[in-house]
Amino acid sequence: MNLQFGEKYEKLRDEVRAFCAASWPPRGAEAGRGSREQGIAWRKRALAAGFLSRTVPKAYGGAGADPDVMAETVIRQEFDRAGVPHRVAVQGPRMLVPTLLECGSEEQRREYIPPTLTGEMAWCQGYSEPGAGSDLASLQSRAELVGDEWVLTGQKIWTSNAVEADMMFGLFRTEPEAAKHAGISYLLIPMKSRGIDVRPLTMMQGGVDFCEVFFDAVRIPAKNIVGKRGEGWKVTRATLKHERVLIGDSQGARVSLDALVALAKQVQREGRPAIEHPVVRQRIAEAAGYVATQEWAVARMLSAIHRNRDAEVMSEMLMTKLLGTNIQQMIGKLALELIPEDGLREPKGEEVVMGIRPFTRARWVSHYMFSLAGAIAGGTSNVQRNIIGERLLGLPRDQRPPGQ
Amino acid sequence: MDFSLSQEQELLQGTLRSFVAKECPPQAVRAVFDGEHALVPALREKLAEIGVYGLAVPDVHGGAGLELLELALVAEELGRGAVPVPFLGPALATLALARGGSAAQQAAWLPRLADGSARATVALGEDGGHWLPDAWQAELANGRVRGRKCLVPDAEDADCFVVGCRGGALALVEAGAGVRVIPELALDRGRPLAVLELDGAAAQPLDATAAARLVDAGSVLLAADAFGAAHQLVRATAAYLQSRQQFGQPLAQFQALKHQLANMALDVDPTRGLWWYAAHAFDHAPAEASRAAALAKAHITERAMQVARDAVEAHGGIGFTWECDVHIWFKRVMFDRLWLGAPELHRERYAALEGW
């Protein structure tokens, strides 16, 4: 056990730090541009320096490096510290790109991966439908091959970033006669296509993030399919192999906990800072136990993956999402107990400073609600519990109705 | 960065796990709970043979010269098996001597503690829930100690005691004149407890800084023990729910129970790194050690206790009986949660150390 990153990675850390200092914030003419252009320009530099999407082959705009979770951790830590725009919506670099690397054609990789890495091409994910949530494979939106075009009809929902996205990767039923999972194809759809109607949904805390997307005889080229007809479900599964790059972030929990402690120092209870109140101390210390649990679980996971011993950390790999969701909800609830009156006011006036939303009181009220999204998006918490039960504890799978 | 065990540590873990499976299966633990104490000395012998009592003894005194993490790995396996053998007391007393004893004290005791020919334990708690150094009242003066310590583990047949005294001092007291051991009825029958009455017993002081470190070490060992016990409870409950049928299907098929089991696993499994780190910090990150130990003790024993309660509930009627093993692990975790102070005490310790 050695918790130092060691000389090799500290040298990398220095390099990343120097790179960030030299490249951000934008200077000269670039300083006057919009944040999207600034982000793209910065990411081009970071890609060229080999710090971003480092495992993507050079031919597609990456650095062609071997997977190294320690290097990725050090780089991410430094990027976060410097506040550089390294994160773009996960749908592109972290979902579509691995899928294309695994299942895409050479032409698709060359066309889509480079602009996706820079953020010039933004993606949204067309999976869920009004009638297909956790039971995703029951989806009914269909695509029919007419000549050299797919014709798409149906509706997707809960589609994050649909307004900004240039492209959608989505699942459509192409083989209506085939069994449930065997009739689905994975298609790439330009969002500017005629017949697409994007309608934003207002979220409970007032923001706009996800949308309904309607398809009315939308035509896309026949070549915009990843994998073969009817293999869409397999394509989405293949992507899961790359999920190991998605794990390993306990930063969010720590940031929220630190903000909670700061809030408890700032607000008064019974004439003194709330943090001095025995009940408040107990409850925040309890939350700290969960946050430290998450951090060391992630550290254990990274170390095991680094040594190609993933099987030893199956618990951690299956649990970090659920644990992280629970932690954010716990912290949100504790914060609202400190500022109860604010919970009666609509959380207007959330500011964004250099892409970061500071924990103002309005942000806490928003967080109290938004922390529920984690229990729904990307596999609900109850689905996570099924997976833990089945894959970790070896419990029987849920019984399906006959014929499924 | 490498937050994983070394090959040697994994070997130790494997050795202990097969030792427990072979030498102390559940029926042996059950027998001890039913009063067959004859098994315990033999178990202790065998543990001594594989060197468990000498793990943290420096090699010059015949030990393995290892650290708290190795002791915690042992605690995990003993907790997993609810093994009714003296470990917590000897491990802490030995650590106190190895880190806070004079050269003469070390030479006199460590070789015999390492090979198991002498027995030592710690007397920390006092009536009224006084566990921590600043609450100790036993009086150490002029080489004599007076006071009453309670909930002392592994006290019967102990040759010497490391006793917590007023002002956070530690004293080494040999069994003999002025030392009286009065057994208490312990809830966890695998870990007997006693009152230690000290009436002017001869005492030698140990290094004063060792006291706080003793609380940290104890916290980590209890957290590791609770982790092992709770981890086992989750697996045992999963196995039981797969075997028992109701409404024509295994209970584990019901999603309500599946989710309850998943939540139990979520309470336990991810906390492994929390006690690993606390153990590591004890020897390698002194500035972090107390905070990490307090957090591990508070969080893990609290979650483990909830898991034990859930395990009883999930077993149904049988889970509430003496004949079902669940109560043994339940009481194991109760001990881990309450000995050295309940989670609330350690959360407050953590909060104070954070400067809140």
Secondary structure: number of strands of chain A: 10
The share of residues in helices of chain A is 40-55%
How much helical structure, as a percent, in the residues of chain B? 40-55%
Q: What does the radius of gyration of chain B come to?
A: 20 Å
Number of helices of chain B: 12
The number of distinct β-strands of chain B equals 9
Distance between the termini of chain B: 30 Å
Give the biggest beta sheet of chain A. 4 strands, mixed
Mean pLDDT over the full residue set of chain A: 91
- N-to-C span of chain A: 48 Å
Low-pLDDT stretches of chain B are none
Strands of the biggest beta sheet of chain A: in what spatial order?
Answer: 1-4-5-8
Q: Beta-strand percentage of chain A?
A: 15-25%
Structure description:
The complex is a heterodimer of chains A (404) and B (356). Chain A has eleven helices and ten strands. Chain A has helices at 7-23, 35-48, 69-82, 91-103, 106-118, 232-240, 251-266, 278-306, 314-338, 361-370, 381-392, and strands at 123-126, 142-146, 149-160, 167-173, 184-190, 196-202, 208-221, 225-226, 268-269, 272-273. In chain A, the strands form three sheets. In chain A, strands 1-4-5-8 form a four-stranded mixed sheet. In chain A, strands 2-3-7-6 form a four-stranded antiparallel sheet, with no helix packed on it. Chain A has a two-stranded antiparallel ribbon with strand order 9-10. The termini of chain A are far apart. Chain B has twelve helices and nine strands. Chain B has helices spanning 7-23, 26-33, 39-49, 68-80, 88-100, 103-114, 210-243, 255-268, 272-284, 286-315, 326-338, 343-353, and strands spanning 120-123, 139-141, 144-153, 160-165, 169-174, 179-184, 193-206, 245-246, 249-250. In chain B, strands 1, 2, 3, 4, 5, 6 and 7 form a seven-stranded mixed sheet that branches. In chain B, strands 8-9 form a two-stranded antiparallel ribbon.
